[in-house]
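FAQ: What does a multi-protein file look like?

Like this. Sequence, then tokens, then the next protein.
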Amino acid sequence: MPDASPRLREPRNPSLVLRLPVMPSRKNIHEGETACELLRHTLATLAYRAGKTFRNAPAGFAEFRVSATSRTPGQILVHLGDLMDWAASIARGKQEWHPSAPLAWEDGVSRFFAALGKFDQVLATKQPLPVPCGKLFQGAIADALTHVGQIAMLRRIAGAPVRGENYFVADIAAGRVGAEQSAPVREFD
């Protein structure tokens, strides 16, 4: 019987292989990091990726539509702000959903980052949350990551793509959730 174990193929260009340090065990990585600290890092990751995706959007992009039934980037952006408001309300113990009307692109971007900052501030208090951190992640945060990816894809379709990046080496830090982010470390086309 032939060997059915998976085989790793050799890289086309060995100089492009990312060499990572050997870690003694998973137990020692970020020892003591709490679920809420990981959530705050996830919010910072969301801010970094959203900032890159929203920055320098072309004129009229907020109204760009790929089909008659699809959401526009402006509609997705206002939904992102609604998600962050909702998540903050859940983290404060009083779940509230308030759908907003679309805004001009830059106003929507400002609103998103303001709502993201308020959510991060709630998590930063280190007060016990009324819900498990995993619930916050699986709802609003995972949804927001998906929507930022949708806007990035719509930018490409609209002819204004966002450059790819090795996000593993990006300078992302918990608490940095505003529109101003560190410059990319390693971008590619």
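And here is the next protein:
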Amino acid sequence: MIISRFSFRGLSISVVRDASGFLSTGFLPPLHDRLNLMNNSAVSRTIAPEHIDEVLREADLLYSPNEIQAAYDRIAAAITKTLLETLGRYSNPLILVVPIGGLFPATEIISRLDFPLAVDYIHATRYQGDVTGKTLDLLVRPRASLEGRPVIVIDDILDEGITLAAILDFCRANGASQVFSAVLAEKQHNRKPALQHADFTGLVVEDRYVFGCGMDYKGYLRNVRGIHAVKGL
């Protein structure tokens, strides 16, 4: 196994690969919130499904499914306008999805884009038992070439933005002609040292523990169609 390391914005970035190429180890917890330190399989196995239903019943609804769909419409329209007006229909953009959470909004957004594009994913994590999150592990890099093409990175939520900013830097360092970021939701707080705003944002949410539309509560509730906040958090 080979581990390459480089640095962006004070983060140590590691690329893990073996003789067959870049290692794909399945999806690790999402990047958006330190509360997701609890979001591993050991924790998930100890949570009763009844508790998950209780959390959902008691949660505060921040955005309804209809509001979420309207947000996807706005994001897709803004991406289309920006790319077609500035780069043209045949700029050959690459969409990079950040799993797990980014898979949900990416599916909705990409299905609304009516121009030629390619899709890949980039798998990174900051939280491997380190609560400070100073090391970014790039577990799977895109198979598609980024050289000379516009790249749009899609994630579920912009929280502190450290990981997303490092991914954007990675794309620039690997030759992308232009790099954009798109998120369904942006948390409203002042703890964004690296990336204040995404280029395309659907909704602004309170500084609370939110779930739904790809965002999770301890590994669950990603499939909820609205955005909710955990009661008391």
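Q: Is there any per-entry metadata?
A: Some entries carry free-text notes. For the entry above: The CA atoms of residues 126 and 136 lie 5 Å apart.
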